[in-house]
Design the sequence.
C-alpha cells in the first residue's frame, strides 16, 4: 500500500476550508475527493476518480442508506397529503404551550426511540417540526436536539444497532476474551459507564432544552431571526429556496403539498409512525419497515379517499425527488471517506500520536484522535473497527484500563456521528427539519465541542486515577 505521509491531511483540510468559506456541503466534499485523487494520481486522476464514484454507488451499504432516505422522503409527503402531521401537531401543541415544553418533549421522544439513530432522527423531526413552528422555536434547535439524542442514546441504551456493532468488534479481540468476557453484551455493559461523550452530550442537550444552557453563535442568531420575523411556518434562511415542481412521466406535484383545512386526523399520522417503529424493532431492518409502512399508508388512505392511487404514486416520487440534494451530500460523504481511507489518513494520524501515549493519557488521546478522524472523514464504523484492533493491544501493553479506552473509542465515534458537518446523521437532521445543512451544522457545533471538552477532561482524570 502506498503511503502519502502528511499529504493525506491536505484533502480534509481543503474540504473544511472550502465548506467554511462557501457554506456549501456537497461542493466541499467533491472538492476534497478531487484534491485527494490529484495528490494520488496527479494528471491521471480523472479515471480513478470516476472509478471511486462508481464503487461508492455500487457499495451495498451505501445503496441501503440512499434508498432508505429516498423512501422516507416519499413517506413524509404522503403523511402531509393525508394531513396526519397536522393532526399530530395540533394534539402536541395543546401540551406544548411554549419553547421549553416543545424542547423537553423533543428530548424525551429522542430518548424513547432508541433502536436506531436514523429512525430516531427522521421520526422525531417529522413529528415535531410543525409544533416548533407554532411555538416559534427555530428548527435549528429541533435539529440539534434530535441529532444529539440520536447517536448518544443509541450508544447508551444497550438495545440498538450501535450496540450490535461495537460489541461484535470488541469480542473479536483476544485480549477481551482473556479478560474473562464470553458474551458481547457483557463487555458492552462494562464499557458503557466510560462512554463520557454521549453522557455529556445528553446532559448538555437537556440543559439546552430546559433553558439553562445559553444560546451561542448561529443558534442565538436563529432565535433572533424567528423572533424578529414573526414567521411561524417559514424560517428566514428557507425563504430563498424555490419551491420544487416535479414534472416526471406526466406528473406535476407542487412542494409542499399543504392542505387548506387546519384539522387533521391524528391516526393518519400515529398509525404509520407506530408501524414504522414496531416493524423496525421486529425485523431489525428499517428498509423493510419503511416499505411495510408505505403499504399501510396505501391501505389507510386510498379507501377513505384521502388521495387517489395516481396521487399516491405522484406524491411518493415527488418526496423521493425532494430529498435528492440530501442523497447527493451523503454520496459525496461516502466518497471522501473512501478517498481518505485510500490515502491512509487514519493509520497516519494514529502512528504519529503513538509516541505521546502512556497509560494515564491514552484514553483522552484516543478519544481526541477518533473524534477528529470521524469529524473529518464521517467514517464511523470503519475507523472504530480499525481503532479497536490497535488500541486494545496498546492499552494492555501500557497497563491502561482497557474498558476506559474502549469507552473513548465509542465516545469518539458518537462525536463524529452528529458533529461532522456532512455526516449522515447531520444531513438527515437538517433534511428532516427542512433547514439548510450548514445552518444546522454550525449552530450545533458549539454544544458538541463543550461536550467533547468535558469528555476529554474526564478521560484524563479517570486515566490518572484508574
Sequence:
Amino acid at each position: 500500500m502506498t503511503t502519502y505521509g502528511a499529504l493525506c491531511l491536505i484533502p480534509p483540510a481543503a474540504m473544511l476550508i472550502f465548506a467554511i468559506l462557501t457554506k456549501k456541503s456537497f461542493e466541499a466534499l467533491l472538492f476534497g475527493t478531487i484534491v485527494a485523487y490529484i495528490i494520488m494520481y496527479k494528471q491521471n486522476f480523472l479515471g480513478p476518480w470516476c472509478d471511486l464514484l462508481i464503487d461508492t454507488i455500487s457499495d451495498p451499504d451505501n445503496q441501503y442508506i440512499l434508498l432508505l432516505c429516498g423512501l422516507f422522503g416519499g413517506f413524509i409527503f404522503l403523511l402531509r397529503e393525508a394531513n396526519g402531521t397536522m393532526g399530530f401537531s395540533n394534539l402536541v401543541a395543546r401540551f406544548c404551550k411554549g419553547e421549553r415544553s416543545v424542547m423537553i418533549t423533543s428530548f424525551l421522544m429522542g430518548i424513547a426511540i432508541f433502536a436506531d439513530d436514523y429512525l430516531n432522527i427522521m421520526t422525531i423531526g417529522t413529528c415535531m417540526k410543525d409544533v416548533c413552528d407554532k411555538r416559534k422555536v427555530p428548527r435549528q434547535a429541533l435539529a440539534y436536539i434530535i441529532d444529539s439524542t440520536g447517536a448518544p442514546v443509541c450508544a447508551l441504551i444497550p438495545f440498538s444497532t450501535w450496540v450490535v456493532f461495537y460489541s461484535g468488534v470488541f469480542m473479536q479481540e483476544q485480549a477481551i476474551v482473556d479478560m474473562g468476557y464470553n458474551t458481547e453484551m457483557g463487555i458492552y455493559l462494562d464499557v458503557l459507564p466510560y462512554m463520557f461523550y454521549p453522557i455529556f452530550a445528553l446532559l448538555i442537550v437537556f440543559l439546552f432544552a430546559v433553558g439553562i444552557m445559553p444560546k451561542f453563535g448561529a443558534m442565538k442568531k436563529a432565535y433572533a431571526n424567528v423572533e424578529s420575523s414573526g414567521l411561524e411556518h417559514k424560517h428566514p434562511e428557507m425563504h430563498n429556496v424555490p419551491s420544487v415542481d416535479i414534472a416526471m412521466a406526466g406528473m406535476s406535484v407542487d412542494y409542499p403539498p399543504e392542505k387548506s383545512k387546519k384539522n387533521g386526523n391524528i391516526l393518519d399520522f400515529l398509525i404509520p409512525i407506530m408501524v414504522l417503529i414496531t416493524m423496525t424493532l421486529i425485523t431489525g431492518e428499517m428498509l423493510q419497515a419503511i416499505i411495510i409502512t408505505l403499504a399501510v399508508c396505501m391501505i389507510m388512505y386510498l379507501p377513505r379517499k384521502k388521495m387517489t392511487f395516481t396521487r399516491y404514486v405522484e406524491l411518493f416520487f415527488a418526496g423521493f425527488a425532494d430529498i435528492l440534494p440530501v442523497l447527493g451530500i451523503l454520496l459525496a460523504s461516502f466518497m471522501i471517506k473512501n478517498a481518505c481511507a485510500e490515502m491512509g489518513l487514519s493509520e497516519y494520524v494514529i502512528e504519529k500520536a503513538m509516541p505521546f501515549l502512556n497509560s494515564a493519557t491514552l484514553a483522552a488521546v484516543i478519544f481526541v484522535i477518533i473524534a477528529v478522524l470521524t469529524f473529518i472523514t464521517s467514517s464511523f464504523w470503519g475507523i472504530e473497527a480499525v481503532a479497536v484492533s490497535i488500541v486494545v493491544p496498546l492499552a494492555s501493553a501500557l497497563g491502561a484500563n482497557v474498558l476506559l479506552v474502549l469507552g473513548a473509542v465509542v465516545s469518539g465515534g458518537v462525536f463524529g456521528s452528529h458533529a461532522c458537518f456532512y455526516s449522515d446523521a447531520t444531513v438527515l437532521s437538517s433534511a428532516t427539519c427542512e433547514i439548510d445543512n450548514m445552518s444546522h451544522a454550525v449552530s450545533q457545533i458549539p454544544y458538541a465541542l463543550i461536550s467533547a471538552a468535558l469528555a476529554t477532561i474526564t478521560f484524563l482524570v479517570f486515566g490518572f486515577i484508574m
Observations:
- Residues 231-262 have pLDDT under 50 and may be disordered.
- The chain has 24 helices and two strands.
- Residues 395 and 402 are 6 Å apart (CA to CA).
- The beta strands are 245-248, 251-254.
